[in-house]
Amino acid sequence: MGDDELSELGDVYQFVFTLPKLKYIKFTVNTLRVYVSLPIAINEQFSTIECLVIDYFCTFKELFAILSYTPQLRRLMVMRHCDGSGFESRLPLKLLNLMSISIHGCSITFDKFKMFIRSLGCKLTALDVLTYYADMNYLDANQWKEFLVECLPQLEKFKFEYNRSLRSKNDYPIHPEDINEFTSPFWIQRKLVVEVVMYPCDIIYTIGPYK
User: Fold this and answer.
1) Which of 27, 32, 98, 193 qualifies as a cystine partner to 122, CB 3.0-4.6 A?
2) In this predicted structure, what is the pLDDT of residue 136?
3) What is the pLDDT of residue 178?
């Protein structure tokens, strides 16, 4: 979809969820004025979708409602900014088939991000997250370790990128000694390494597999 006049996708999603053999769908909307009005699904409303790609600006609250209709989902990709406004603790879903999540524009606190993943009731094997959100907890190696061990023990592929704009040459969001926490045996055994790239106005931290 690419209609610039389209702003409310609730009816579109409701129609798509009724298609009996649909396995893959990509929603692309070329406008900033988008919202999805969907109630949480009831049992008879479930969809057969296995791969869902969202290519528009959305919220985690809307995303959670959408996912309540897709118990067969195996792969989720959110390609643009996903805002945390209005997202609170939810009753858990049962996305037992969901193995891969990619969110390229995660705008939510780390605590709420962990809450979101827990609420899906899934057993991820792949997680790819990019955030611009100014929450220093995203760069806490021990918090990540605790979360991965507790909630994602089956995880095989992990990539995390934290982008931060710098207001001055001394405005670095993490100190070198803190980066060393990502070199503990936990990260080495999983063949994960942290990389830091500095630009004049930005700094990028990436945690991912050895290249």
Assistant:
1) 98
2) 85
3) 65
